[in-house]
Design a protein that fits this description.
15 strands, 3 domains, 27% strand, 299 residues, Pseudouridine synthase, globular, Structural Genomics Hypothetical 15.5 Kd Protein In mrcA-pckA Intergenic Region, Chain A, 19% helix, alpha+beta
């Protein structure tokens, strides 16, 4: 799990380990000292010492890690496998499954299932994300790809970093957005650390949307993303006043309650890539889950 925020004038300027521990009170100062010493806390993309004192407008990036004594366990959790060979594995992730362990979710994740299913998965002793090359939000369903070997992992990470992987989503949102490419930066919300927000000082985020159907209340969208920022599609659609139906964080709570839907109707439908070992083109598609099918019938 990662987090980032800007130092504003309402934050006390003190040494970095103390400052962060005040922002994230669920974790101890000792824990953040461990992260800093291991290069997992960056200020303006640079490593710092725990005694460093940030300045106004400095950007803090935190890469949360499991402490060395945390034992990552293999768990027998069913996987809906879409594609598998000796090097990679793709599943249809159900809504509700967390991709990898992190604060508050140390078990029942895709990684726990992957460790059980791939008994020979190579990982470092302190790695809490073995095999993971990208993520989907907990309540987003669809194609999730993982690497089974170190070589495949490295090659896939490069493809994602260089935007060589095609990602298509389906979403059901309120209202009807215009077909467009949204290029609006996103950053961590300045107050609610669990949320993201449109921010001109944030990181580049590019989303393409196309309305497939509209029923005077909701739209069925085809969504393509060129970047992979946290909550990107959800934040961009909220910015257009077209939040995703069922989104408890960025959506319309009264409408969500009326339709008795408690997860965002966002589905990672297609992933197209170059196989990391064979270099052959590969297209992986995930069928729609039942809850999505139910609301798709409205059109």
């Amino acid at each position: 799990m990662t987090d980032n925020f800007l130092i504003t004038d309402n934050i006390e300027l003190t040494r970095i380990d103390k400052l962060i521990s005040k922002q994230f009170e669920a974790k101890s100062r000792t824990y953040f000292q461990y992260l800093i010493e291991n290069g997992c806390v960056l200020v303006n993309s640079k490593k710092v010492k725990k005694s460093f004192i940030p300045k106004i407008n400095d950007e803090i990036e935190i890469y949360f890690q499991a402490l060395p004594d945390i034992d990552l366990k293999a768990e027998d959790i069913p996987l809906d496998i879409l594609y598998e060979d000796d090097d990679i594995l793709a599943i249809n992730k159900p809504a509700g499954m967390v991709v990898h362990p992190g604060a508050g979710n140390w078990s029942n994740t895709f990684v726990n299932a992957l460790l059980f299913y791939c008994k020979d998965l190579i990982r470092k002793s302190d790695d809490i994300r073995p095999g993971i090359v990208h993520r989907l939000d907990k309540d987003t369903s669809g194609v999730l790809l993982a690497a089974k070997t170190q070589k495949a992992h490295q090659k896939l990470i490069e493809q994602f970093k260089n935007r060589k992987i095609f990602k298509k989503y389906l979403a059901i949102c309120l209202n009807k957005p215009q077909d467009q490419e949204i290029s609006i930066p996103i950053a961590r919300h300045p107050v609610n650390r669990k949320k993201m927000a449109v921010n001109e000082n944030g990181k580049e985020a590019i989303t393409q949307i196309k309305t497939l159907q509209y029923n005077e209340k909701f739209s069925l969208l085809e969504v393509f993303i060129k970047t992979g920022r946290t909550h990107q599609i959800r934040v961009h659609l909220k910015h257009l006043n077209c939040p995703i139906l069922g989104d408890e964080v960025y959506g319309n709570k009264s409408i969500n309650s009326h339709f008795k839907i408690n997860r965002q109707l966002l589905h990672a439908q297609i992933l197209e890539l170059t196989h990391p070992i064979t270099d052959k083109p590969l297209k992986i598609e995930a069928p729609l889950p039942e809850d999505f099918k139910k609301f798709k019938k409205m059109f």
